Amino acid sequence: MNSGSEAVETAIKVMRKWGYMIKKVPKDKAEIIVCRNNFHGRTTTVISFSTDLQYRKDFDPLTPGFKVIDFGDAKQLEEAITENTVAFLVEPIQGEGGIIVPPDGYLSQVRKICTEHNVLMACDEIQTGLGRTGTLFAYEHDSDAKPDVLILGKALSGGFYPVSAVVASEEILGVFQPGDHGSTFGGNPLASAIASAALDVTIEEDLTKNSRELGAYLHTELRKISSRHIKEIRGRGLFVGIEIKESSGLARPFCEKLMTMGLLSKETHEQIIRLAPPLIITKEEVDIIIKTVRKLFEEAE
Ligand SMILES: *Cc1c(COP(=O)(O)O)cnc(C)c1O
User: Fold this and answer.
1) In whole angstroms, what is the distance from residue 149 CA to residue 172 CA?
2) Is 151 in the pocket of ligand 1 (CB under 6 A)?
3) Residues near 258 by beta carbon (within 8 Å), at least 6 away in sequence
4) What SS3 class is residue 200?
5) Which DSSP letter does residue 183 get?
6) Ligand 1: which atom is nearest the Cα of residue 3?
7) Which positions of the chain have pLDDT values less than 70?
């Protein structure tokens, strides 16, 4: 497909159809479980299960069929599943939600629960996938956590061109018959060639290793910065969230200051500075990030 949101829509369609065709859920009853604080895109159905009022307000009526549970709590998933549940859709690390890393083993537990209840496990790795967190996919940080459905976008083209994808087995994607789904520009040759080249570069240049090693270094050095403005520094690989204390105001002015200092970042929600440098970054460039962030907080003192 073209955008990440469209890939999520595609996954929802295929998982619902799988529910009716394969799991034999009664007509119109398919349920998908999602997490509070999620971000899966901006189309009407996708915002229907957002818990962020700004994304939903004045865009109703919304699409039914979704149930919201807390992120990081596998027990809640088990309790929320009914015989009509077709899928659990989750970000392995909540990106827009504030670089929220779930407890160790969470996705392994999710995998187990989904298998036991014949529910599809779908990971939205649009932001976390393809090396960003130091493994090719973020679900690999847990053992035996391979999802049934993997949703990719953003880095799939090196962040350069609109292309997204839903990855799943023949049994699942095979429920789509010719004419069930499509898009004028979906799967177009240029987008496909760019995605293919971006994947080659990711593998050949071992960008995942670069993300893992330089990410570890970046986290270690950033955590040495002591500032009364910092509440927490978290993330994995080259995916970092610096949470600013509420008493220190919003993250946005900190991001704007960083921009004037030559470092582009983007806040998520009110309090978090997000750093997501290109995976081709060098050690020297990571040192510039560290120096700049340290200077930011020194000046803020
Ligand atoms: C960016 C993002 C999307 C939406 O992708 P678009 O290309 O903006 O439609 C969906 N899920 C996650 C996790 C994202 O980070």
Assistant:
1) 8
2) no
3) 264, 265, 273, 292, 293, 296
4) helix
5) -
6) 7
7) none
CB-ligand 1 contact for 4 (6 Å cutoff): yes
pLDDT value at residue 209: 98
Q: CA 73, 76, 80: angle at the middle one, nearest 5?
A: 145
Q: What was the pLDDT predicted at 301?
A: 86
| Residue in the block written with tokens 């159905």 | 45
Shared domain for 189 and 261, answered yes or no, is no
Residues with catalytic roles: 39, 124, 154
Determine whether the shortest distance from the Cβ of 132 to ligand 1 is under 6 A: no
| CA 164 – CA 151 distance, rounded (Å) | 8
| Domain count along the chain | 2
Q: How far apart are CA 41 and CA 151, in angstroms?
A: 12
pLDDT tens figures, 252-276: 999 999 999 999 999 998 999 999 9
Q: Are residues 177 and 95 in the same domain?
A: yes
Question: Helix, strand, or coil here: 214?
Answer: helix
Q: Do 230 and 245 meet the contact criterion of CB atoms below 8 Å apart? A: yes
Strand partners, 244: 230
Residues 11 and 69 in one domain: yes
Q: State which ligand 1 atom lies nearest to the alpha carbon of 127.
A: 15
Task: Return all residues near 130 (Cβ < 8 A) that are at least 6 apart.
Answer: 136, 137, 152, 155, 156, 199, 202, 208
Query: The tokens of 80 are what?
Result: 């929320």
